[in-house]
Structures are given as structure tokens and as C-alpha cells.
Amino acid sequence: MPANRIAFYACILLLVNACKPKSLEPSDLISWVQNRDNGLVKEEVIGEAKYTVMYMPPQYLLAKSLLNLDSFAINSNSDCNHCFVIKMEPVDGKSQFLTLGAMGKSEPYERINYYMNDIAQDINILVGNDTVCMDNLVLERYYNVSPSQNLVVAFRTPGADMQGKGVRLSINDRSIHTGQMNFEFSSSLMKDIPKLKK
Prior knowledge:
By secondary structure, this protein is α+β, with helices and mostly antiparallel strands. It is 29% helix and 31% strand.
């Protein structure tokens, strides 16, 4: 009787793993990564600020490059390149993120400078047991057209592939005074990211 039960559970486990996509076409991989149900999009609310983080694995970046016919990005793509988009927005969705809790008229401009330069010291990732500092940072400015602000941060992990390793993105937004925020991407989640179909 116990042997039958073990065999039954083994079959169920095998079927569940067989249903997960192993490789996807570029457009399908992009949709898979952007789907919140797959776990690569995380969110945290602190006070009046909401932070949404999306991990963009190397195969996602390559898929975007293939669809955009960007030969430079295709040729420079590497399994060592890892990006995150950090969307910062007010919880109410109406006020401007840069003005949250501002004490004076110059504070939003100081925050722009902070997000363009100094926040690089306040964001890092932990891959397994290795801390990796940011390699590149871009602040996408919306010039008050949108209440949110986006940061695109890139990390290079030479000789260490993040595939299959747990990753923690740490952000300490000193401009809004959030304190340390950690966005966890478990090793099992990282192992389940489908490959790009070749």
C-alpha cells in the first residue's frame, strides 16, 4: 500500500513538472516574464509609496532584442547581464511620486538628482552568497505626465550565472526614507524560468 502511494505521488510530480514550459518563442517568453502569476514581478508599499520590481532575465532581454531587430543588443547579450525595472509610484495614483512628503519646492529636483546618480549606492543584489553592485542605471523621466518614475538597473555577474540561484534585490531609498526593502526571487523560481526557443 505505501509503495502505491509513493508511486502515485511520483507520477503526479512528474506530470506537474512536464506541464511547465521549457522553452518559448520570444513574444511568449516576454509575456511569461511580465505575467505577475509567474513570480518575477514583486510589489511593496511603504507609506504613500509603492514599489513594483520586475526581474528581466538575460533570455527576456534577448527576446526583446530579437523582436526589435536590435543587432547590437543581440550581439552584446550575455548570461551575465541581469536587469530589473523598479517602478516607483504614489499609492493614490494621482499625486507625483517626486513630491511625496516633500518639505520644500527644491526637494523634487534633489530627488531627481538622487535617482539619476546617488541611488546607485543604495541598490544591490545578493546572488546566492555573493553581493553584486550595480553596473548601470537609467532613470526614465516622465516630466509630470505620469505620477510614477521608473528606474532600470543592470548588474553584471562575471563567471556566475544567476539561473537557478536565489536572488535578493535590496533597495534603500534615502530620498523617500523607506528603509531597507528586499525583493526575493527564490532559487526554485529562478530554475523555472523558461529558456528562449532557438
